[in-house]
Amino acid sequence: MALKTLVVNPPLGAPTATVFLLHGLGDTAHGWSDVAYMLSRRPALQHVRFVLPTAPVQPVTLNMGMQMTAWFDVQSLNSLETGEDEAGLLQSVRTIQEMIRAEIDGTGPELNGLRIPAERIIVGGFSQGGAIAFLTSFLTPEPLAGTLALSTWLPLAKKIGELRKRTGTWPIMQAHGTIDQIVPYELGRKTSRFVRQDLGFGDKDTFRTYDGMPHSACPQEIRDIAQWLETVIPQTPREQ
User: Fold this and answer.
1) Quick check: 120 and 16 in contact, CB under 8 A?
2) How far apart are CA 148 and CA 25, in angstroms?
């Protein structure tokens, strides 16, 4: 499935790293374009390209079957961990995996044959998009650089052991506001504990709390994202 995609390329030179940013329910790529532009203009991130796809339009049960952009169906805000749309989740994961493969092969939008190694690709997102980013990172065998999970949770957690395609651990940054009215803060904390303890990530999983932040983003969170990206995909790739 080809998705409409917004690309923010580095202001100077060819990119050496890619960050996927997946939006939340009912949004589009443009909803996070300002953040991508801000990040791309930081001196230490001017080697990074940001790829922002827009989810397909589909009916969403939570909103009385109304058609809207969605990475998967949502039955109820009270059932984020139960009654999950497994088929929809896995379809979106496959779509993002195809886009990741295109980055690696040099066939991604506006790459013109330039290849981005798997270990220089981060998959991230907000809310629904963050759930897909989280799941994609576990179901993709290639050694991606890291996972950025904003105001979100790990879907299909009870099946992650049998679904997981990648072994080992990698850097994960989770971020959540304390007054999130859509994805409860405690669900984010629970996800972090599960990833750190049950999945063995330990300190590889960083959980950042933002007091008074609802289901949104804030300036401090964006600064923290920038610093994390600068550490995980620095301007000069680490020697192998």
Assistant:
1) yes
2) 17
Placement of tokens 């301007």 in the chain: 235
Q: Using one digit for the tens of pLDDT, what is the confidence trace for 146-194?
A: 999 999 999 999 999 889 988 899 999 999 999 999 999 999 999 999 9
Active site amino acids: 127, 180, 215
- Structural domain count of the chain: 1
- pLDDT at 1 (0 to 100): 62
- CATH number of the domain bearing residue 112: 3.40.50.1820
Is residue 239 domain-resident?
Answer: no
Question: Which residue segment(s) compose the domain that 168 sits in?
Answer: 5-232
Q: Tokens 């405690």, residue?
A: 186
Q: Which of 77, 59, 119, 107 is nearest to 240 (CA)?
A: 119
HEC letters along the chain:
CCCCEEEECCCCCCCCEEEEEECCCCCCHHHHHHHHHHHHCCHHHCCEEEEEECCCEEEEHHHCCEEEECCCCCCCHHHCCCCCCHHHHHHHHHHHHHHHHHHHHCCCCCCCCCCCCHHHEEEEEECHHHHHHHHHHHHCCCCCCEEEEECCCCCCHHHHHHHCCCCCCCCEEEEEECCCCCCCHHHHHHHHHHHHHHCCCHHHEEEEEECCCCCCCCHHHHHHHHHHHHHHCCCCCCCC
CA 15 – CA 239 distance, rounded (Å): 18
For the whole model, what pTM was predicted?
Answer: 0.94
Q: Do residues 97 and 135 lie in contact, with contact meaning Cβ atoms separated by under 8 Å?
A: no
